[in-house]
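Case study 2.
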Amino acid sequence: MAVSLEVWGDYALFSRPEFKVERVSYDVMTPSAARGLLESIFWHPGLKWKIDKIYVLNPIRFGNIRRNEVTEKISRNNAKTMMMSGKSSRIYASEKIAQRASMVLRDVHYVVDAHFELTEKELSERDSAPKFYNMFIRRAAKGQCFQQPYLGCKEFPANFCLWDSDEVPQGFEEGSRDLGYMLYDMDYSDPKNIKPMFFRAQLNKGILDVKNVEVKL
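Prediction:
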């Protein structure tokens, strides 16, 4: 079942993976970021969100900001050790702090067209596609979410509402532009070998159509 969600915010950062230290955003929201927004409003193990189109309503504008980050993170092995031993491990931000530049998007405004598919995982006899659809519509209409949706980074919260207009959203520009290869999502089919998936992004009249894109690992 299809839904349309309007999303906007002052800043966004959809990080390009080829930049390690200084973060640089993609030109538009990635499909995986759009999926994360929908899951922040309504998630169930028995459904999987699929992104169809992302309408870019505002012109693409970049800005440079500096953010305080830590230079280290707790490793997976340390996390397992903490779970098994009960001992804690800490990173003190005051000791590991580093100021880094980021190229972010400014004044973003999108409409996300998506649908979901049932996965039959942990579904009860009372669960159905119409039930999940109505739950999402009700929550989105009331501005409810189980965690704050964000635009790429948690520092940049997203505002959202249902796109309730009968008109199709209009992109900000005419013509088309090649955005190069963009992250589509992560392949979790093998939990021990999670792989990123990419696609060649084309923005046509301000619309990123990802419904039938060719994905490459």
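The longest strand covers residues 97-118.
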